[in-house]
Amino acid sequence: MDPVNPTNHFHMTAEPLPARRSVCVRCARPTPVCLCERLPARPITTRTQVVIVHHPHEADHKLSTVPVLTKCLLNSTTIITRRLRQGLSPLLDQFPPAIYLFPPTNPSSPAVTLSSLIRDNTPLVLVVFDATWKHAKEMVSASEGYLSKFATRVCLDYDESVSGGSIYDSELILRKEPYGGCVSTMEAVARALRVLEPNGTDIERTLIEVLREMVRLQARYLKPMKPRPKLLKKGKEKDSKENSKGSEPSISL
């Protein structure tokens, strides 16, 4: 032991820090799953303003389509929150003509199908919620008091009796949805813009091509998700109770 420096008998060797993954500066994704070759050369300009309400838990999820979507669309913004309210968005606080995309969850929360929406040539604001199915329902319920002041609830054509598939049918399933019509945020926006935009078909095709490539690349590193039957449990129990009451004819309105 050195009397001048009594601590010099400790020999500590710092372990090397793990190498950080290289990240693409343009798409901000890890290099092995870079999407730059599929992204539009310039963000797509739309008349529709897209506002994405992003749940905090989804912000860092590796399968989130929101970061990719905002790089594809020029007129898109993201709000990270569990509930929309006054003061979060200068655009929404102006109470513009708007629609928010979410299926009906009960008779007190109806939704117009997007294909039957009657509209003029006024540009709309499209509000979409990005979260797990459970969280998204909670976000919509918490936000409807604010949204009901200026926005109409609409939904894609869907069928609760059909189990949800992947973000595109008959291919990779990475995040199982509860039933048909409940799709990824990026696919939902693509389908909506197909109806809302004059060149909607081209926009939808571009977005879906990017989405397909994202899933193809990500599938190399993730195991496919198993179906989530618990999400359909309540619906099946309801159907069972109705069937047990008899087979009286009914009219769907």
From TrEMBL:
<dbReference type="GO" id="GO:0016432">
    <property type="term" value="F:tRNA-uridine aminocarboxypropyltransferase activity"/>
</dbReference>
<dbReference type="GO" id="GO:0008033">
    <property type="term" value="P:tRNA processing"/>
</dbReference>
<keyword id="KW-0819">tRNA processing</keyword>
<feature type="domain" description="DTW">
    <location>
        <begin position="20"/>
        <end position="223"/>
    </location>
</feature>
<dbReference type="InterPro" id="IPR005636">
    <property type="entry name" value="DTW"/>
</dbReference>
<feature type="compositionally biased region" description="Basic and acidic residues">
    <location>
        <begin position="234"/>
        <end position="245"/>
    </location>
</feature>
<keyword id="KW-0808">Transferase</keyword>
<dbReference type="Pfam" id="PF03942">
    <property type="entry name" value="DTW"/>
</dbReference>
<dbReference type="InterPro" id="IPR039262">
    <property type="entry name" value="DTWD2/TAPT"/>
</dbReference>
<feature type="region of interest" description="Disordered">
    <location>
        <begin position="226"/>
        <end position="253"/>
    </location>
</feature>
<comment type="similarity">
    <text>Belongs to the TDD superfamily. DTWD2 family.</text>
</comment>
<keyword id="KW-0949">S-adenosyl-L-methionine</keyword>
<protein>
    <recommendedName>
        <fullName>tRNA-uridine aminocarboxypropyltransferase</fullName>
        <ecNumber>2.5.1.25</ecNumber>
    </recommendedName>
</protein>
